[in-house]
Amino acid sequence: MFRMIPDAENSSPATPDYIRSLIQKTGRPATWCAARVGITDRYLRELTSGNRQASYSLQFTLESLAHEMEQLRLAAQQHAHMKK
User: Fold this and answer.
1) Which residues contact 45 (CB under 8 A, 6 or more apart)?
2) For the chain, what are the domain ranges?
């Protein structure tokens, strides 16, 4: 199992486009993502509009959420494929 390890020195910049891409990777609405990482919908909108900059810890949390949701999706696809 792959574990993400925080490394601020090698992180991607937390641009609005990058934050939006992380939300998209979860496959869930932005409001769901905001609730899961402990921020308000408004704060997430400010991040995706460029009015605020995400801290590295928030960025890593969103990256981890996106990664875990992708892993769950892959596992579900593999399970469905095995049932055929």
Assistant:
1) 30
2) 14-83
